[in-house]
Specification:
Blueprint lengths: L1 E3 L11 E6 L4 E8 L2 E9 L4 H16 L8 E5 L5 H18 L3 E4 L1 H13 L2 E3 L14 H11 L4 E10 L2 E9 L6 E10 H14 L9 E5 L4 H18 L3 E5 L4 H13 L18 H9 L1
Parallel strand pairs: 1-7, 2-5, 5-6, 8-11, 11-12
Antiparallel strand pairs: 2-3, 3-4, 8-9, 9-10
GO biological process, one term: tRNA threonylcarbamoyladenosine modification
Protein name: tRNA (Adenosine(37)-N6)-threonylcarbamoyltransferase complex dimerization subunit type 1 TsaB
Organism: Paenibacillus antibioticophila
């Protein structure tokens, strides 16, 4: 099975990260070391994250054989998603970071959802303990772009989805290739699903043949109830443009992917200011909010 490694040529030693996210109904916790997943804890705790998060963190640390004093940083999902859930995660991360004097790395929950959903769909896992993240080599963005052009490899599009009610979704757009971390093509936001799919269909139609994605992955909350309606909307609107490249993959967020995204930020020295880190309470664009209000 393939593994996704964070390019890590700059690693000057093991980086132990505690990672967690409570922006969805799934509470996700992981402990990472140098790109390897030491332990992971995943459970459904909708509307009850605050009561179980601390115990879930401790359980993951115990399973990893890591004391909190041995941590080098904290990665936390900042949303978008559940307003209360994102606030709980960020508040807990800031409290722990302050008490332990650790750097904190805010991670887009949609980025982690996109990474995890796409990787799982493609049969990839977070590197297991003992695997060398540095072995994959670090490349600059310019080097990566040049190598990609030479290899003529088409990337995938990844569209993460979280239901936001009333025909809306929390979503974004990423592109990725096997063994590499996704790159963002569109910002996190709350959008009307039909409008968003139409926008993606337009992007796809306008793309040159060499720029068209090999596959389009719709990942996340696509399995039951209203979420199923989102999947059907994707197929109906994108289908004529995407054809057989469109894949819908139900996926629940896992902590290891939050940790891998956090590791990338830690390697770049891209930490957040402890006292200014806030959840991403993204709002519907004004034009769409007005249109929705008239509906």
């Amino acid at each position: 099975m393939n593994k996704i490694h964070q390019p890590a040529a700059e690693l000057d030693g093991a980086r132990r990260l505690l990672a967690f996210d409570t922006s969805t109904s799934s509470l996700a916790v992981a402990v990472m070391e140098g790109g390897s997943l030491l332990a992971e804890h995943h459970l459904h705790a909708e509307r009850n994250h605050s009561a179980v998060l601390i115990s879930a963190i401790q359980e993951a640390l115990d399973k990893a054989g890591i004391h909190k004093s041995m941590l080098d940083g904290i990665a936390v999902g900042v949303g978008p998603g559940s307003y209360t859930g994102a606030r709980i995660a960020v508040t807990t991360a800031k409290t722990l970071a302050w008490a332990l004097k650790l750097p904190v790395y805010g991670i887009s929950s949609l980025e982690a959802l996109a990474l995890g959903g796409w990787a799982r769909a493609a049969g990839q896992t977070v590197a297991a303990p003992g695997a060398s993240a540095a072995g994959c080599g670090a490349r600059s963005a310019a080097d990566a772009a040049q190598n990609d052009a030479e290899e003529h490899i088409s990337g995938d599009w990844i569209v993460p989805l979280m239901d936001a009610r009333r025909g809306q979704v929390y979503t974004a757009l990423f592109t990725a290739k096997p063994g590499r971390m996704p790159e963002r093509l569109a910002s996190d936001g709350i959008r009307l699903m039909a409008s968003w799919m139409s926008e993606l269909a337009g992007r796809l139609e306008a793309a040159a043949p060499e720029e068209r994605p090999a596959r389009i992955w719709i990942v996340g909350e696509t399995e039951a109830g209203k979420a199923q309606q989102h999947a059907e909307a994707a197929r109906e609107i994108l289908g004529p443009q995407a054809g057989e490249t469109l894949q819908v993959f139900p996926y629940e967020l896992e902590g290891g992917w939050v940790g891998l995204a956090g590791l990338r930020r830690s390697l770049l020295g891209d930490g957040d200011q402890l006292h200014t880190l806030e959840p991403n309470y993204t709002q519907l664009a004004e034009a769409e909010a007005k249109r929705l209000g008239k509906g």
